[in-house]
Amino acid sequence: MVKAGSAEAEVQLAKRFKKLVREWHSKTAFAATIVDIATAPPYQMIIGMGPDAIPLILKELKKEPDHWFWALKAITGGEDPVPESDRGNMVKMRRAWINWGKKRRYDI
Amino acid sequence: MTSEADLESRFPGLKGTEYRITSKDDKKYNCIAWAAGDNKRWWEPEPMRQYYWPRLAPLCRSLEAHMKAFETIGYAQCEDGKPEESFEKIAIFFQGKAIHAAREHDGAWTSKIGELVDIRHELHALAGAEYGLPTIFMKRPIRGSRASASGASRASETGNETASASKR
Fold this sequence. Notes:
A: mainly alpha; B: alpha+beta; 7 strands; globular
């Protein structure tokens, strides 16, 4: 049995996350709306991973802009560092969330 | 990069029509934004309120909400999608809810496909199971055209919230 919080558990979590990200991308490439993109089962399963998924999501977001904002807001219980004037601008949304993660000392 | 084969598998109506891919895949804007002339933001009336949606438009996927969104940048409903001199047009696709929007450009239509590419296409080539039918048409004067003076005043009256939306 893998001990929670151990290095092995982290590796397993990262593997599961990557698999879900691949599934999410393949299922939603043609999706026309954020609602469709963020309600896809793999995305919902990532939200279900809870706070452990936050550094993994932030690392993905650092690599490239993507629609991680619903997941971050949901997992953090409604936090949103993006000012209203930047809504929809993924470059600025991404920057705001990465800065948010750095302030909270996430390893990203 | 999305290929013609990918597109035709999803939109069979494209087969045998004149269409072409005009951009790379890009997740930063969607079809509604592209129809509005904005390739910097994703426009969507979504419940988490993280994406752009004009304040004056209701936050739902109804035709009325989408029409209101386009009204904020100077569009008004019109009869059809036939090209008209000095005007640009958009079409809103509907299937139970507003799903897609396309923009008329130089007599052809241009659409952003999800998070993927922009294409130039025949309007009805995208009609079908995925996007429904082009149901509402709207037009506004092209900037600098004779018709634009009245259009500019109409945009001002409705509260143009997006400077970037008319930067084509």
